[in-house]
Specification:
Pfam families: META. The protein has 134 residues and is of the alpha+beta class. It has two helices and nine strands; from the N terminus they run H-E-E-E-E-E-E-H-E-E-E. Strands 1, 2, 3, 4, 5, 6, 7, 8 and 9 form a nine-stranded antiparallel sheet that branches. The longest helix is centred in the last third of the chain and has 13 residues.
Length: 134
Amino acid sequence: MKRLFPLFGLVALTACDPSETLTKYGGGDYAWRLVEVDGKPVNFPNEISFGAHGSVNGKGPCSEFSASQWAPYPWFEFKDVSGLRQETCAMTAQEDTYFADLAEMQIVEISGPNMVLSNEAGREMVFVGITDGG
């Protein structure tokens, strides 16, 4: 029985591995562009990338930003957003909505160059991969 304790410890550490986030399942393979929210096309410039250790970087129509996403796949939790907004930008409302929508998402599904974020209320954000991040 004493021989099993180190094995249990190893299994517990593996369960907390940050590589179990969406990056392990293809989220880090692309920079992503939001193309649709709740069935409506998106017409503002945007990009989001997911890196190692929960890092998130991107561009909205008015700023570049960073955030974190530590939830294990298929869960999604966009938080700790920071960035600098351009002083004069005609799309601040779109950007504010973009960040609010990302914060509402709870589930991520990745299939090759397609990513869908959704929540229990039935909302969806559809992204396409635009570059190879690897």
